[in-house]
């Protein structure tokens, strides 16, 4: 399996002959060069969406239409998009699991918010979530944007993920020290990949606090468009 960071909270997963995108943010992403946009999404079969803040959702509908692939996310929004945007979707909800051609994806809680902007103000679009992704014998917890939360205890115990992809930039999510605390208290990760950091000055620029807080755990600082092989 290959995990490829597209910057910020965006990822590309390559497993077997499947390519999944998670919250693909291309337009205006300051750390993903425009010349890499095509390679970032090439061959994608599904797009996973955790929530509707612009830095996660802005390219989802355009990509779904361009690539002709389903969007996988919360039932309420998926139903609306399928009816009004004419795209294919896979709608489910927290606790549910869908099989995407041999890759099992389970929706789990997160603690954040999920809105998009309209001229009259923000509009809610379901709730924020994370995903448990199972493929090739690995169990990955992709936290989505979240703070530390008590739900991590049962998720770690029940799903037993060995890989954690953790939003850890602070300000909008838990920071590196918080992510280290959550990983150590609630999970038994063998590998941790931080994300949602380094994009803007307001976010943490280094994963050192996460590395220092997790002795014995392989903490991989991802590089944009460079594959992490599991």
Structural account:
By secondary structure, this protein is α/β, with parallel strands linked by helices. The protein has a single domain (2-221), classed as Metallo-beta-lactamase, Chain A, CATH 3.60.15.10. Helices cover 23% and strands 30% of the residues. The protein is built from 7 helices and 16 strands. The strands form 3 sheets. The protein has a 7-stranded mixed beta sheet, with helices on one face. It has a 7-stranded mixed beta sheet with strand order 7-8-11-12-13-14-15, with helices on one face. A two-stranded antiparallel ribbon has the order 9-10. α7 (208-213) links the parallel β14 and β15 (218-219). It is globular. The N and C termini lie close together (5 Å). The mean pLDDT is 97.
């Amino acid at each position: 399996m290959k995990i490829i960071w597209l910057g910020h909270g965006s990822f590309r997963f390559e497993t077997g002959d499947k390519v999944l995108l998670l919250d693909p943010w291309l337009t205006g992403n300051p750390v993903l060069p425009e010349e890499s946009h095509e390679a970032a999404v090439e061959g994608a079969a599904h797009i996973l969406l955790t929530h509707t803040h612009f830095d996660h959702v802005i390219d989802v509908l355009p990509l779904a239409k361009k690539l002709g692939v389903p969007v996988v996310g919360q039932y309420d929004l998926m139903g609306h998009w399928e009816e009004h945007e004419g795209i294919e979707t896979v709608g489910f909800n927290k606790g549910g699991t869908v099989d995407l051609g041999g890759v099992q994806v389970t929706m789990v809680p997160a603690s954040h918010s999920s809105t998009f902007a309209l001229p009259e103000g923000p509009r809610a679009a379901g709730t924020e979530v994370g995903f448990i992704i199972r493929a090739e014998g690995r169990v990955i917890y992709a936290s989505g944007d979240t703070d530390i939360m008590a739900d991590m205890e049962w998720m770690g115990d029940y799903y037993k993920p060995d890989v954690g992809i953790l939003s850890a930039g602070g300000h909008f999510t838990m920071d590196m020290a918080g992510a280290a605390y959550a990983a150590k208290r609630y999970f038994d990760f063998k590998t941790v990949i931080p994300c949602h950091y380094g994009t803007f000055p307001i976010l943490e620029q280094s994963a050192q606090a996460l590395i220092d807080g997790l002795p014995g755990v392989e903490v991989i600082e991802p590089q944009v468009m460079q594959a992490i092989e599991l």
